[in-house]
Design a protein that fits this description.
This protein is of the alpha+beta class and 77 residues long. It is 34% helix and 16% strand. Strands 1-2 form a two-stranded parallel sheet. The longest helix is centred in the last third of the chain and has 17 residues, at 60-76.
């Protein structure tokens, strides 16, 4: 539910990761969350990774780099 994202106000930031191939949680859903997010956020969309299986997809390395860069940036803030 979009209303619940407003509870994230105690976080410094959020990285939203969605895949076009995910039919359970679609990128459109993620964009709605981001639009209602009370903290700075970043939206990253992949082409083809199934729900919760990005580490088993062709995007594995890119995902690891993205996560590490996000946490590196967050730790410097």
């Amino acid at each position: 539910k979009v209303k619940r994202i407003k509870e994230a106000k105690k976080l410094d930031s959020i990285l939203f990761i969605y895949s076009q191939a995910d039919t359970w949680t679609t990128p459109e859903m993620g964009r709605r969350f981001q639009q209602n997010c009370p903290v700075p956020s970043e939206f990253w969309e992949l082409e083809n990774a199934q729900h919760a299986s990005i580490m088993k997809s062709e995007h594995r390395e890119e995902y690891m780099q993205k996560i590490l860069a996000y946490f590196d940036q967050a730790s410097q803030s």
